[in-house]
Amino acid sequence: xxxxxxxxxTPLGRVxxxxxxxxxxxxxxxxxxxxxxxxxxxISAVLIVISLxxxxxxxxxQILGSTPVAIVMVLFIISVFYHMRIGMQVIIEDWVHExxxxxxxxVLNTFFTIAVGLSSIYAILKLSFGV
Amino acid sequence: MSAPCCxxxxxxxxxxxxxxxxxxxxxxxxxIGRIVLxxxxxxxxxxxxxxxRYLIWDTGRGFGxxxxxxxxxxxxxxxxxxxxxxxxxxxxxxxxxxxxxxxx
Lengths: 131, 104
Description:
Radius of gyration of chain B: 20 Å
Number of helices of chain A: 5
Number of strands of chain A: 0
Largest interface: A-B, 19 and 25 residues
Mean pLDDT of chain A: 88
Shape of chain A: elongated
Strand content of chain A: under 5%
Number of strands of chain B: 0
Oligomer: heterodimer
Low-confidence stretches of chain A: none
Order of helices and strands of chain A: HHHHH
Structural class of chain B: mainly alpha
């Protein structure tokens, strides 16, 4: 033991290594990783959506299906949906204290993210592959 | 009158209907549709700048009382400014007459 502790955590707390939730560091890091990825991806996606306003069906299908736009949109969907799922999970964990309701909402949160996210990716890929 | 596309099964029934995209376009390009899209992009940009505030806080900086006040104001002013810039400049860059299409 050093004479002067470098932080305010007790030795026992340091040994245990976890907070009360036993996990969450992974989500904390991934929330920030996707946040950084979302900065360029969101600006790109907003510009793409603005460029689609008022165009006819053929033009919109061509723009969304073009290789660079389709890749950016798929990356945007993956990063935003991952970010959204973690953020919503944190809100549920913070505010829903009744156990059954909490776990039901956490399951629905993940189901919703995967269902809507994969539907969005499917739509982009379908346009891009020209099927 | 067939079910709107947002109803379960709506998309499947209307998929091959020639007027389906026209129906979407008239809603999306209407005044209310543009307000909703503009508001949605503003919310997205505001969330993005608010998140960058948290990334600054993650580095241990910006916790002073004045700094926190300043960051909140910069968040609001920045999100409104950046959204307008994206719509005006972005509209021009992305398609020539886009500004006329956005603001007829």
